[in-house]
Amino acid sequence: MKLISCIIRPDRLASVKEALFRAGITGLTITRASGHGGERDTVTVRRGSKLLMQFHEKIKIEMACSEPFVAATVNAIITAARTGAVGDGKIFVQPLEQVIRIRTGERDNAALTPVTVAEVQKHSLEAQR
Ligand SMILES: Nc1ncnc2c1ncn2[C@@H]1O[C@H](COP(=O)(O)OP(=O)(O)OP(=O)(O)O)[C@@H](O)[C@H]1O
Ligand SMILES: [Mg+2]
């Protein structure tokens, strides 16, 4: 299992959500974020000496995925979030040790929905109908 998180432009959120849904990813968390990507042009001098970083409005999406979903998830985000201009964002993929569904106590892959490639294909077929 992996915890995939990504930082994207707010105006790409609708298309990223649609691409994720088509890839079978329906469990996710979206947070409004404020970020800096190391850009130099936004560093400004204030009151003579202080350097102040300017932060940009971003969206953070977090998804816990079983292994068969990882590549499709990353591809969906890249395709839907990319404009080609600086500031398109980043994707982070981290190992995920444990997932627990609170209602049932199910653990790991059983706590992630859906869990197989077959289920993903079924989901995306249903989404296209
Ligand atoms: N190393 C990082 N760690 C955590 N968050 C980051 C990191 N780099 C970028 N981000 C987040 O992603 C947002 C967009 O970053 P950005 O796309 O500008 O990255 P970049 O490396 O400068 O790439 P680009 O050259 O395309 O601009 C940032 O505002 C920040 O929220
Ligand atoms: Mg940048």
Question: Could you describe the 3D structure shown?
Answer:
The structure is a single chain. By secondary structure, the chain is an alpha+beta fold. It has one domain (2-128): Alpha-Beta Plaits (2-Layer Sandwich). The chain contains three helices and six strands; from the N terminus they run βαββββαβα. It has helices at residues 13-22, 67-81, 117-128; strands spanning 2-8, 29-35, 44-46, 50-52, 56-65, 90-95. β3 (44-46) and β4 form a beta hairpin. It starts with a strand and ends with a helix. It binds adenosine-5'-triphosphate and magnesium ion.
Describe the global form: elongated
Structural class: alpha+beta
Rounded to an integer, what's the Rg over CA atoms?
A: 18 Å
Written as H for each helix and E for each strand, in order along the chain, the element string is EHEEEEHEH
Give a quick precis of the structure.
The protein has 129 residues and is an alpha+beta fold.
Secondary-structure blueprint:
Layout: E1 2-8, H1 13-22, E2 29-35, E3 44-46, E4 50-52, E5 56-65, H2 67-81, E6 90-95, H3 117-128
Antiparallel strand pairs: 1-5, 1-6, 2-5, 3-4
Helix pairs in contact: 1-2
The chain binds adenosine-5'-triphosphate and magnesium ion.
Describe this protein with a few key phrases.
129 residues, alpha+beta, Alpha-Beta Plaits, four-stranded antiparallel sheet, two-stranded antiparallel sheet, binds adenosine-5'-triphosphate
